[in-house]
Amino acid sequence: MTLTIADPVRHTVQQIVSWFAQGFENAAESDMLAALSETEVAALAEDCGLSAHQLMALVKAGPHAADEMPAMMRALNIDPAEVEYRLRRVFRDMQITCTQCRSKDTCRNHLQQGKAERTFVEYCGNAETLNALRANPDLLIEA
Fold it and tell me: What is the structure's pLDDT at 23?
C-alpha cells in the first residue's frame, strides 16, 4: 500500500478530533502537528472546523485546557458524556471556548467552593449554551 499525502493528514485529523473527545495526553501528536507544512495545518484546521491559528492555540493550550468544562457541566447537573454523544459539535465548540477562557481561576475556585452553579453566568463564556443544555431533560444527570 502506497501512502499519499492525504493519509498522514487524515491520520492527524483523527488524532486531533480524538483529542477533543479524550484529551491530548501524548506530546507525540503535538510533534506530528509541528511536522506538517503550513498548507497541511490549514487543511487540518479546516477539517476540524477551525482556523489554523485556533488549532495552533488549542494545541499550545495543552491537554487539560478545558478540564473545567465537564466539571462545570456536572455542577449544573448536565451529563457531559450525553452532551458529547448527542451534540458532538456543541461539545467541541464549548471545549474551544473553555480552552480560550481568561476566567479559569475564578471558575476553578467557584467549582471548588460549590458556588459555580449560582455564579457561572457572570464569567463563563459557555453560560448561554450551558443554560440551554440544562433546559433539556435528556441531557441531565439522572438522580
Answer: 47
- pTM score above 0.85: no
Q: Higher confidence at residue 23 or residue 60? A: 60
What pLDDT does residue 44 have? Answer: 83
Q: Which residue has the higher pLDDT, 138 or 53?
A: 138
Domain ranges of the chain: 6-61, 68-139
Which set of grid coordinates corresponds to residue 87? 451534540
Q: With helix as H, strand as E and coil as C, how does the chain read?
A: CCCCCHHHHHHHHHHHHHHHHHCCCCHHHHHHHHCCCHHHHHHHHHHCCCCHHHHHHHHHHCCCCCCHHHHHHHHCCECHHHHHHHCHHHHHHHHHHHHCCCCHHHHHHHHHHCCHHHHHHHCCCCHHHHHHHHCCHHHECCC
Residues 80-95 as b/e (b if ≥16 CB within 10 A, e otherwise) read bebbbeebeeebbebb
C-alpha cell at 6: 492525504
Predicted local confidence at residue 24, as pLDDT: 45
